[in-house]
Amino acid sequence: MNIVVVGTGYVGLVTGVALAHIGHRVTCVDVDEEKVKQMGRGISPIYEPGIETLMKENMEANRLFFTTDGARAYREADVIYIAVGTPENEDGSANLTYIYQAVKDIASSVTKDVIVVTKSTVPVGTNHEMQRMFQQLAPHVRIDVVSNPEFLREGSAIYDTFHGDRIVIGADDERAAAVVAHIHRPFGIPIFQTDIRSAEMIKYASNAFLATKISFINEIANICEKVGADIEQVAAGMGMDQRIGSSFLRAGIGYGGSCFPKDTKALAKIAANIDHDFELLKAVIEVNNKQQRKLIEKARERFGHIQGKKIAILGLSFKPNTDDMREAASLVIARELVAEQAIVVAYDPIAINKAKAVLPKEVIYASHVEEALKDADAAMILTEWDEFRQLDLSIYVKQMKTPIIFDGRNCYALEDVKKYAIEYYSIGRKP
Ligand code: UGA
Asked: pLDDT category, 1, cuts 50, 70, 90?
């Protein structure tokens, strides 16, 4: 099977590499020449554990190729996966410019029948619109559109691709669905076949539900702090109920990344467009916005004002094992600290380069934890990197002016912290 993947962001690159790994011939297309050159040398433009090993292995086996020549790749393709971005418009809706551009490019190049698989997250109805455009722009060939939403997580994208819970295939045409199911069968993951609109909705509903779980547990955490309960205990006790499940009950400073913030807003907008006020989802978003500022509130309560205080920020990316800064809590927190004229020294194991482009210019960067903590009035932990979780707690006492920790990710057990002269504020637990 000759497969082409359009777009080499997280989803596109991981999809391309994984499909090559299970034996298909895959060509990844991107408009960015520099990026394509880099990938051609086996260098991944995204930080993702394990991806470069798989890239090199499959390039050497002549199964994985990278090109900017979309037209040629489309002409030779049996199946084309669209994995371009659907960023957020100002009004919260999904921007489909790149999707429709890909449709036009494909339509003007293909000379034989082809199946187009949409991996990008798109509002309900988009795949049908794409189908309509293909019929209009390329009436000489048969193009079947199939929805195949992606559920991988950044940082464990390779693992998730090979060990996912389900592969969703939404299609109007049985034959096209069968071809796509056949392509994915070697993954050995259950395949859920459905209609196109339901497949599109499964993606949004899944992300919105997970975001809801996070905002819910964060609100419970906020209440726990006030009533003297411990959120870690509460989440563990709740999670034992299989109807609830134990995952996505980690309280903290809210969700970030390129998916939950964007997809929750897009779904609220989809609902609004049909005059449905999705109140629950709007509350989930609002709770998350507030939660991202939780540590600032705690610091204000503790210090009165933060002006002139030296604050060490540990962790900048929106979660561990990625250098992705999109919608990271660190953006909100660093901006607010700088606005209040605190001295901000930040450290992250891998996201510093990306952070420099998006954080306020006043932020100072440290090259290791000790340097960041040196003489600090307080530390704020924003990302639960293993490096921080496994840190010898005496380092805080040795390095800081006053060992005060505001832990936004509950990295330490309360009984461990108690052994040191550390003032410790975390989420949903007594100080
Ligand atoms: C998320 C979904 O988990 C994937 O299934 C989906 O494919 C992806 O979005 C997407 O739509 O492309 P991702 O954004 O990579 O994946 O990261 P997650 O691991 O889900 O974490 C998202 C955010 O939620 C992070 O900021 C994380 O810190 C936060 N989170 C997660 C919590 O605060 N508590 C939790 O219990 C879990």
From this structure: confident
Spacing, Cα 129 to ligand 1 middle (Å) = 29
Average pLDDT, rounded, for the chain: 97
Say what the alpha-carbon torsion angle 154, 100, 147, 77 is, to the nearest 10 degrees.
-90
Q: Is the CB of 208 under 6 A from ligand 1?
A: no
Residue with CA at minimum distance from ligand 1 atom 6: 151
- What is the pLDDT averaged over residues 61-84? 97
ipTM: 0.98
Of 174, 194, 214, which residue sits at a domain end? 194
Burial of 190 (0-12, 13-18, 19+ CB in 10 A): exposed
| Residue 304: partners with Cβ closer than 8 Å, 6 or more residues away | none
The CATH number of the domain holding residue 89 is 3.40.50.720
**242 located within any domain:** no
User: How far, CA to CA in Å, does 337 sit from each of 42, 223, 261, 290, 307?
Assistant: 40, 25, 22, 16, 8
Q: What count of Cα atoms within 13 Å lies in the side-chain half-sphere of residue 239? A: 15
Give the integer Cα–Cα distance in Å for 156 and 50. Answer: 9
Is 340 in contact with 273 (CB distance < 8 Å)?
no
Quick one: three-class SS letters along 112-143?
CCEEEEECCCCCCCHHHHHHHHHHHHCCCCCE
> How many A from CA of 260 to the centre of ligand 1?
7
Domain count within the chain: 2
Q: Within a domain: residue 431? A: no
Q: Let me know whether 16 and 138 are in one domain.
A: yes
What integer is the mean pLDDT of 53-76?
97
Domain boundary among 148, 176, 194: 194
- Phi, psi at residue 382, to the nearest 5°? -110, -20
Identify the domain containing residue 42 by its residue range: 2-194
pTM of the model: 0.95
Residue 220 counted as domain residue = no
Give the single-character DSSP code of 249: -
pLDDT more than 70, % of the chain: 100
CB of 318 closer than 6 angstroms to any ligand 1 atom:
yes
Q: Is 234 a domain residue?
A: no
